[in-house]
Amino acid sequence: MRDFVEIRFMVEKELWEKLDLSNKTEWYAKEKNRIYLKGAITRHHMQVLRQQKIYGHHGLWIDPDRVLEPSIKKIFSGNLVVDLPSRKVMVHTKTISLMPEQYEMLLVFLKHPGQILTRELLQDLIEIRGNKQVDTNAVSASISRLRHGLQDASMIKTIHQNGYQWTKEVKIVKE
After folding, report:
1. Structure confidence by residue, pLDDT tens digits, 31-89
2. Is the pLDDT of residue 111 over 60?
3. What is d(CA 60, CA 68) in angstroms, rounded to the nearest whole number?
4. Please, which residues have CB within 8 angstroms of residue 102's CB and are 6 or more apart in sequence?
5. Which residues form the OmpR/PhoB-type domain (predicted)?
6. Are 55 and 158 in contact (CB under 8 A)?
7. 16 φ/ψ angles, rounded to the nearest 5 degrees
8. How confident is the model at residue 14 (pLDDT cuts 50, 70, 90)?
C-alpha cells in the first residue's frame, strides 16, 4: 500500500455513509473515516471533498482546531517545536510569529514529512483559509515567508515542477 496516500476524515459515521466516496474512481475506501488515494493528493481530490461538504478538513489539518487529534500536544522537527494547544511555534527556543495560513501550511508539511505536496494543494489551502481565490504566486510567497520565519530554508525543499517537500524528521508527542 506504499503507493497510496492515506486521508483520515473526522466525520460522524452517518456523514461518512452519505459520502459514499468508495465508488469514486481513484479512491479506495478501506474503512470508516479513511480513504486511500493513489499517488499525490490533487486539486481534483480536494474539490470532490469540498463538494461533499468536508471543505478540505481531511487529515491534512487545513483546520487544525477541528481536525487535529486532541491528544497531540507538540510536534518536533529539527530545531522547530510546535505547541498545538497554544498554537506557538518556536525555533531554537525562540517564539516566531506566523500568519494563520503559514501556520496551517506548516502543519500540513509536518503531517506529511517527505511527501511531495503539490502547488495546487497548497494553493487550495490558502484559498480555503482566506475564503478567496489566489494565484500560484501566492503559494511561492507563502512558502518564502514560512521559510524565512523558520530560519532554515532547507526544511522545505522545492521539487521542480512537482511541489514542495518537508525534509526533516518529525516527532509527534501526545498526552
Report:
1. 444 555 555 555 666 666 555 544 443 334 333 343 445 677 899 999 999 998 899 99
2. yes
3. 9
4. 142, 145, 146, 149
5. 71-168
6. no
7. -55, -45
8. low
For residue 143, the domain's CATH number is 1.10.10.10
What pTM does this model have?
0.64
- What is the sign, positive or negative, of the torsion defined by CA atoms of 29, 30, 34, 37? negative
Calpha distance 96→119 (Å, rounded): 25
Amino acid (one-letter) located at 89: V
Range of the domain at 19: 4-174
HSE-CB for 111 with a 13 A CA cutoff: 23
Tally of domains within the chain? 1
Amino acid sitting at position 2? R
For residue range 79-107, list pLDDT tens digits in order.
999 998 899 999 999 999 998 888 888 98
Q: Cα separations (Å) of 124 from 44, 93, 117, 120?
A: 10, 31, 11, 6
